[in-house]
Each structure stands twice: as structure tokens, then as C-alpha cells.
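Table S2 (text version). Query chain:
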Amino acid sequence: MNSTVPGFADLGLVPGLLLGVQDLGFESPTPIQAQTIPLLLSGDHDLFGLAQTGSGKTAAFGLPLLQHLDPEAKGIQALVLSPTRELCVQIASDLHKFSARMSGIQILAVYGGAGIHTQISKLRSGVQVVVATPGRLMDLMERKALNLAAVKTLVLDEADEMLDMGFRDDLDYIMTHAAGRCRTWLFSATMPAEIKKMADRFLQNAQTLRSDAGTAPPSRLEHWFYQVPFSRKYEALKRLIDAHPEMYGIVFTRTKAEAQELTEKLIREGYDLEALHGDLSQVQRDKVMARFRERSLQLMVATDVAARGIDVRDITHVVHYSIPDDAEVYTHRSGRTARAGKAGVSMVILGPKDMMRLRQMEKQLKFKFQQGTVPSGSQIAETKLRHFFDKIAKADPKLDRIGSLLQDLQPMLDGLDRDTLIQKLVWLEFERLFHYYSLQNDAEMQSGASSSASAGNNGDRPRREYAEDLPGIQINLGIKDGFYKASMLQFLLDHSGLQKADLGKIILGDAWTSIEGEQASLDQLKSSFDGARFRGRGLKVTAKQAGRGGDKPAYAGPRRGSQGRPSFQRNHNR
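Corresponding C-alpha cell output:
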């Protein structure tokens, strides 16, 4: 290791934590860890850290948090807030691993979707560290099952995502009761105005650290796009999977309905994969993640929200079944591969109208995507055959287990010469593949791609693509009713049971809100408002009107002097 690069032993960690880090195979700290750990160990500093998924920020705040604990003291000493159940569970798991060589440390994850009475019982038995989602923490505080009086360290992880999900009021309440009395560490991938306001309000003399690792895609990550007719996207996905037999990755979709539909179709065709989305119970989600981590599944199909906080080693590919809305989402998704110095591949499947959005994303990311050609049937067959024979050549048969069986079966093959035996093996293994691709038209996969690809560079005004590709509805609530974008999103999710990823663009007017999304999600949203009233007024849901939901939103920010926070029923599964 280069002497100019500090090791974990140089950061001031106690022996128990150093042993825990070594047990996990960590060799050298990431940039955010090397900057953050010594600072947070040196005193009661407040911190504003800009770092994204994959930068190693959990260890950056987790190791100092654990070192500051007093195992003999009673009460909750550290609180970590995260936006989703998955990230909450992942952080708690990481803290358990870091502290495995320490004694007397009790860590508890509390989140919606799990039994609250079980969580209350565990809290009463005594824990030093609580990792929580904001909604469940608020529920526990309202039940007086949790007291923040003894908290010495407060961490907000992915604070921008929590605000985007509509947790602003919950965070204000929690931080008002905890921040100021304790060291507060706020981590965010971006710094929108709302995050800056929160930092200015609650952090005192905060140090600001920025990690470039994670803000740009890893250098060993390849970025490819494949443009096909919209009706051929599913076929293109299958071909890309078939052409990469060693693929171990995540396929990202816009909505949970799309994730489930895609998963069911691929399973019917023999692919080893499962879906991860908001409709799964916590037990189901845990089972999917366990199977994926142990590689019983080749692929996992996931929505962005459901995949937040997932940390799985050695992912080789990330596939974007639809191009994400912005560069930050793309970086979050693709950052799940090419970790720890390993290579990775990110693939985007584009429809005919998506090229302009890709070019805009390239400007934000400051690099160019490579254009790929969807593999032909003959190319896929050749790749599969080579992979099959490579597996045969590398196989290490356990003769002690199969030797006697082979002796019994050998006479059945005595009449076959070497070439005939190989031909029969190949045909039995690949008959389905050969038959399938003999019926497919390779040319259809490329039609229209070249003209659309060149259109992205002609300097024309960007077309409204995604917004106009999706159906939309309109509700008679808007800015005058006290809503801003995040609170409207939370209002819609609470009433409908949908997830954030199920909805597209949301635009607020003075007295209306336009919502876009897949038709199934809109139907569920519309039915949830049947007969509903808001402050005595009946709610009306209609088809989106022309001229609303275009390029220039009618809403530019929160309006002061509104009627206050809109009231709506709390969703206890947050």
C-alpha cells in the first residue's frame, strides 16, 4: 500500500473496531472514510457530508459512532435515520459487523412493516443504537416508547432522499427534540435548497466534507446504451441477458407494476430472478435479498425506492429497463457495480424518443455512453455455446459421488463416438435457444435506432418525451391548499398505498395538481379518492388537461403564507 494513503490503523480507531474492520476484509479506507473518521473521532463536531451510494459512508459515520458509545451507560446514545426499510436494515447490519469484536453494544433497527410491539419490547430491554425510518420513529415517540434525551450522536443518512419522500415535517420534529444537544452528522448525495436550510438551522459550526468518490461513476464502469423500438424492449432485455451468461445484476424499472410484470414474464421463460418492490412484505423482501446475495438468483428486478440501501458485492451488471429521469438516479443505480476496484457494466435500454434525454444526461455526467448493438440470435448462440464448453472444461467432477452411477450408465453411450456425443449434448442444452431465435427477426431490433440516435445531436429543442408518453390525471388540490411538491407526493402515497416509483411527473398549479404514471397506478390512485373530502370539499379526479404538465411547470417553489401543512392520514408502514 502506498505510504501516502492512510490505513484504518492510522485513523485513530480502537482495537475492537480495527479487528472488526479486518474481519470484513477492508484493506484501506475510501476517500470519504479517510476524511471523515479522524474528524469525527477528534471531538463533538457537527458534520455535513456530501457523498453518494457506494462511497463507503456507512463506515465513515458508523465507526466513529460506535467508538463514541459508552457500553455501561443506559439509554439510547446514538440515532441513525434513513429513508427506507432496506437501508435501515443494511445500516444496522453493518454496525453489527463493525462492532462484532466489541462487547456490550446493542443495536436495533426500527421501521414500518415490522411488528411495532416487538420493537417496543426490544427498546425496553435496552439498546445503545437505534437505526430508524422517520415514520416509525415518530410512531414510537408518539407512543412514548422511545426517549431521545440521552442521545449523543444523531445521523441523517441520505437526507435529500428523506426530504424528497415527504418526511420534512417529521425530520423537523425529530431534530428539534434531538439536535443541538448532541453531535449531528448529516449526509446527502446532493445539496438542494431544502437540505441547505436544514443544515443551516440544525447544524452548529459544522464541518463540510465532500467525497468525489461516488459523485462520478467509477473509472472501471462501462456505460452502454441500446436503442430499440419501444415494442422490442423486452426482447432486447432478454437478448442482453442471454448474451452475458455470467451476468449477476439488477434490472431497474420505473414502477413496481412494471417490475412485477417483467419478473413474471422472465420467470415463465426460465430465467432465475425475483422482483423487489414496495408490495412485498418485509419477510418476502428479506427472502429475495437472501437468495440474491447467495447467488441462487442471477438477477433481481427492482424499483429505485425498493433498492435504496442495497449493498451486494460483486454485481457485474446494472440494466436500466427505462432511462432514469436524471443523472443522480443513474449514478445511484450504476454505482452498485464496479465497486472495490472491480469492473462493471451499466446498460440503458432506450426507446425511440429517449435519445435527447440521454444526451442531456451525458452533459451532466461529463462522459459519453457507448452505443451497443443488440446481439443477433447467432451471436447469442455462439456465446452460450462457448460458455457451456468452458464450464465443461473447468468442471471438477466428484467421482466419489457419481463414480458408481457412471459405471451403470456407461453402456448406454457405448455406441456413440466423440463428435456425436458432443452434438447431442449441445442440442439437448440449446434446442430451446436455437428454436426461439430462429423465429425472431434480428433486423427488427435495430429499426429506427440509427435515425433516432443522430437526432440527439441536431440542436433541436428537446421534445417532451417521458411526460407525454405516460397517461395522466388531475386532482383539484394545489398550492392554495397549502401543498408543495413533497407534501403532495406524500399525500398521494398515503391515500393510495402506492410507492414513489409508481408515479411520474407531478406538477402543481394554484388549484390543481397534474400527476403522470402508468395506467394501473393512476387507476389505483383515482379509486383511492372516490368519495374523499379535503377540508370539507369533495375531491375530483379527472383526465389531465392539455397544456398542463408540459415543459414549464406552473409551480416553482413553496408559497409563503399558505394555509399551513395539509392534513392527511399518517402511513404507519413508512
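Notes on Table S2: Residues 213-217, 450-468, 546-574 have pLDDT under 50 and may be disordered. The chain has four domains: 8-210, 221-374+446-455, 378-438, 466-543.
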